[in-house]
Specification:
Elements: H1 14-23, E1 33-34, H2 37-43, E2 46-51, H3 61-69, H4 74-79, E3 81-84, H5 88-100, E4 104-109, H6 114-122, E5 126-130, H7 134-148, E6 151-152, H8 159-175, E7 181-185, H9 190-202, E8 207-213, H10 218-225, H11 247-256, E9 259-263, H12 265-279, H13 289-296, H14 298-301, E10 305-310
Parallel strand pairs: 2-10, 3-4, 3-6, 4-5, 7-8, 7-10, 8-9
Antiparallel strand pairs: 1-2
Helix pairs in contact: 1-8, 3-5, 3-8, 5-6, 8-9, 9-11, 12-13
GO molecular function, one term: D-serine ammonia-lyase activity
Pfam families: PALP
Family: Belongs to the serine/threonine dehydratase family.
Length: about 325
C-alpha cells in the first residue's frame, strides 16, 4: 500500500508534489519523454513530448485520481468514490477504486464515447447515465452521493487532484532539463495548474504557457479578466478541453502562467495528424493543442527547447478527423 498523504487545504507546495509523486508511484507509469527530428524541423524548435498517452487508463488523469483517492480515510473509502466525467477522469477514478478495492460510482453523459464508457465499466465501476449538460451531471452526482455516501473526486477543482497532475511536469523536467518553455493544454485547468506549480518549483527559469482551442477560449479570457469565464459554444474537436476553469485553477494559472495560446481547429487537426504520422503514436485531439500552438506562433517558439504534455491517447478510432 502507498504511504498515506496529508489533506491539502491550500495550493500544493514543492514538498506536497514530491510526497504525492512518491505515494502514487504504484498506481501510475513513469511515462517516456520522446523527441522527433522531423517535427523539430517543421516547427523550428527542439520539442520534448511527455507521453501521457502511455499512462494507465491512457491519460494523465490517473495521477490526479490516485492522489485524491490515497488521501481518503478508511471510513470514506469503504463508502466508495464518485465523480462525473465524459471519459478520461471517469476511467481514472474507476481504476483508482479498483486498485484500492472500493466501489466507484461514475456519472457519464449519454453522449460520452462508447469506448470510454466500456473502459470505465471494465474497471468495475457503476456507471450512471445523465443528460449531456453540466447541470445534469451535477444533479445526478448529488443523487448518487446522497444514495451511497461516496466521496466526490472533482476532475480539476481540487488541490489533491492538482498535486497529482503536477507530477507529470515534474517527471518531464527531470528527464528533459533546461527547458525554455513548458506547456500544457487547458480545459478545467487541473493539469495546467499542476504543470505551472511544478515548473515554478523545479524549473524556475522556464517560461510557463498554456494552449487551448479558439472556440473554447475561456481560459485566455479569464487570464485577462481575472474571473472565471464561460463559452457560448463547445463544439471543438478537442473534447477534453471543453470545460471552464475554476477559482482554484484560475488563481494558480494567473500567478504562474505567462501566456495562453489559442489555436484554430484546422491547426489542431494538422498537429494531431503530424504526431500520428511522424511519431507513430496514438494521441487524442486535446493532446495536439500545444503542438498546434507551436505551429501557430513560430515567433514565440522558434529556436526554443519546448516541453509539452501529450495528455492522453483515448481516441475514438471510428471518428478520426483525417
Amino acid at each position: 500500500m502507498s504511504p498515506k498523504l496529508p489533506v491539502l487545504q491550500q495550493v500544493p507546495s514543492r514538498a506536497d508534489i514530491e510526497a504525492t509523486h512518491l505515494a502514487i508511484a504504484d498506481l501510475i507509469h513513469r511515462t517516456p519523454v520522446m523527441t522527433c527530428d522531423s517535427l523539430d524541423q517543421i516547427s523550428g524548435a527542439k520539442l520534448f513530448f511527455k507521453c501521457e498517452n502511455f499512462q494507465k487508463v491512457g491519460a494523465f488523469k490517473m495521477r490526479g485520481a490516485a492522489s485524491a483517492a490515497l488521501r481518503l480515510t478508511k471510513a470514506e473509502l469503504e463508502k466508495g468514490i464518485a465523480t462525473h466525467s465524459s471519459g478520461n477522469h471517469a476511467q481514472a477514478v474507476a481504476r483508482a477504486a479498483q486498485y484500492l478495492g472500493v466501489p466507484a460510482y461514475i456519472v457519464m453523459p449519454e453522449n460520452a464515447p462508447a469506448s470510454k464508457r466500456a473502459a470505465t465499466l471494465g474497471y468495475g465501476a457503476e456507471v450512471i447515465s445523465c443528460a449531456p449538460t453540466i447541470e445534469a451531471r451535477q444533479e445526478t452526482l448529488d443523487q448518487v452521493v446522497a444514495r451511497t455516501g461516496a466521496t466526490f473526486i472533482h476532475p480539476y477543482d481540487d488541490y489533491h487532484v492538482i498535486a497529482g497532475q503536477a507530477t507529470a511536469a515534474k517527471e518531464l523536467i527531470e528527464d528533459a532539463p533546461a527547458l525554455d518553455i513548458i506547456m500544457a493544454p487547458v480545459g478545467g485547468g487541473g493539469l495546467m495548474s499542476g504543470t505551472a506549480l511544478s515548473s515554478s518549483y523545479f524549473s524556475p527559469d522556464s517560461h510557463i504557457m498554456g494552449a487551448e482551442p479558439e472556440i473554447v477560449n475561456d481560459a485566455a479570457r479569464a487570464f485577462e479578466s481575472g474571473r472565471v469565464e464561460t463559452n457560448t459554444r463547445i463544439d471543438t474537436i478537442a473534447d477534453g478541453l471543453r470545460t471552464n476553469l475554476s477559482e482554484k485553477t484560475l488563481t494558480i494559472i494567473r500567478e504562474h502562467v505567462e501566456r495562453i495560446n489559442t489555436v484554430e481547429e484546422a491547426m489542431i487537426i494538422r498537429a494531431m495528424r503530424l504526431i500520428w504520422e511522424r511519431m507513430k503514436i496514438v494521441i487524442e485531439p486535446s493532446c495536439a493543442v500545444p503542438f498546434a500552438a507551436v505551429l501557430t506562433y513560430p515567433e514565440v517558439f522558434a529556436g526554443q527547447r519546448v516541453g509539452m504534455i501529450l495528455t492522453g491517447g483515448n481516441v475514438d478510432l471510428e471518428k478520426l478527423p483525417f
